[in-house]
Amino acid sequence: MSDRRWPVTLTEGDIVLRPLRQSDARRWREVRRRNLDWLRPWEATLPAEAAGGGDAVPTFGMMVRRLRREARESRTMPWALAYQGRLVGQLTVGGITWGSLRAAYIGYWIDSEVAGRGIMPTSVAMALDHCFDALHLHRVEINIRPENAASLRVVEKLGLRREGERAEYLHIDGAWRDHVTFVVYAGDFPDGVLAAYQRSRG
C-alpha cells in the first residue's frame, strides 16, 4: 500500500528524521558512548531467561539490518534524529499493527548536549502526524518509566493523554520496570500534533 512506503524523511527547521543507515555507525557509537550514564537507566536489557535463546545484544550493523527488514515489512519506522546536520538521537515507531488494530508505539533517545531545546517534542510530534496522516493509524502509544522526568516532559509538552500504568512492563536497566502509558488517537489533534505544540510554545 502506498501509505506504508519506506524510506521516509520528515523535516521541521533544523530537525530531521531520516532513515538510520550503516554510515551512521561512528557518530552513533560516539554519541551513545558519551551519553552512557544519561541513557543507561532507560535502556532496554535482556532478562536472564533470554540468555541462550538467540536474543544476544546486536551490533550496530545487525540492528540497522534488522530495522531495515522490519521497515520493508511495514512493521517499524527506524529514524535517525539529526539536528543542524548531525545525528543526535534516534526515534523509532515500532510494533506497527494493521488490520482491525492499526496501532504502534514510539520510543526515542537524545544526546544530553542538545536536550531541553524542544528537539524531541518536535520530533515525536512529526512522527505522530506521519502515523495518522500518512499511515492512517488509529492509536499510537508511548511508554515511559515514571522516574524518567526528561521523557515525561516530552509527552507533557505535547499534551498527550495519560492512559494508565503497566506494572513490570519492560526489562529496563537490568530489571522488570513499571511504565506509564501515554496514548494518542486519530482525531485527538485535528490540526496535527506539531501544530498544537507550536501554538503552545508561541
SSE layout and pairing:
Blueprint: E1 10-12, E2 15-19, H1 25-34, H2 36-39, H3 60-72, E3 77-83, E4 86-97, E5 103-110, H4 119-133, E6 139-144, H5 149-158, E7 161-172, E8 175-185, H6 193-201
Parallel strand pairs: 5-6
Antiparallel strand pairs: 1-2, 2-3, 3-4, 4-5, 6-8, 7-8
Structural notes for this entry:
The chain is of the alpha+beta class and 202 residues long. It has a single domain (2-201), classed as Gcn5-related N-acetyltransferase (GNAT) (Aminopeptidase). 30% of the residues lie in helices and 32% in strands. The protein contains 6 helices and 8 strands; from the N terminus they run E-E-H-H-H-E-E-E-H-E-H-E-E-H. The protein has helices spanning 25-34, 36-39, 60-72, 119-133, 149-158, 193-201; strands at residues 10-12, 15-19, 77-83, 86-97, 103-110, 139-144, 161-172, 175-185. An 8-stranded mixed sheet has the order 1-2-3-4-5-6-8-7, sandwiched between helices. Helix 4 (119-133) crosses helix 5 (149-158) and helix 4 (119-133) packs antiparallel against helix 6 (193-201). The termini are far apart. The model has no long low-confidence stretch (mean pLDDT 94).
Net shape: globular
* Poorly predicted parts: none
CATH hierarchy class name: Alpha Beta
**Extended strand count:** 8
| Strand order in space, largest sheet | 1-2-3-4-5-6-8-7
The average pLDDT is: 94
The radius of gyration computed from the alpha-carbon positions, rounded to a whole number of angstroms, is: 16 Å
